[in-house]
Amino acid sequence: MELDRIVHEPVRLRVMMILSGVEEADFNFLLTTLSLTNGNLSRHVEKLESAGYVKVNKTFKGKLPNTSYQITLKGSNALTQYWKELDVIRRTGRI
Fold first, then answer.
1. Does residue 49 contact residue 55 with C-beta atoms inside 8 Å?
2. What is the separation of C-alpha 82 from the centre of its chain, rounded to a whole number of angstroms?
3. What predicted TM-score, i.e. pTM, was given to this entire model?
4. Rg (CA), the chain
């Protein structure tokens, strides 16, 4: 059994956990909540988006750009599977 390395990375796991509990979250919310730099958050979200785990929505609020994120069904399933695999590891001690 091998844990999903995309989800397993601590920052990405935290992003996925936040997104799994909300309809969507904007960039500034994630930035503040996770105490990351703009570049660090962007890089992790790009990895999640490339894997199909997160959908990126770019809109405008008035004249200001706004980027928000949603967990996809694929991402939600990956997160669920990740926790199941981690539970097996905890129970059996096998990786």
1. yes
2. 12
3. 0.90
4. 14
What does CATH list as the number for 5-88? 1.10.10.10
Task: Compute CA distances 95 → 12, 26, 77, whole Å.
Answer: 21, 35, 20
Q: What tens-digit pLDDT sequence spans the chain (95 residues)?
A: 689 999 999 999 999 999 999 999 999 999 999 999 999 999 999 999 999 999 999 988 888 889 999 999 999 999 999 999 999 988 987 76
How many Å is the maximal CA-CA distance in the chain?
Answer: 54
Domain ranges of the chain: 5-88
pLDDT value of residue 61? 83
Other CB atoms closer than 10 Å to residue 80's CB: what's the count? 11
Q: Which amino acid is at 81?
A: Q
The span from the CA of 19 to the CA of 13, in Å, is 10
Cα 28 to Cα 35, 44, 79, 89: the distances in Å are 10, 14, 23, 35
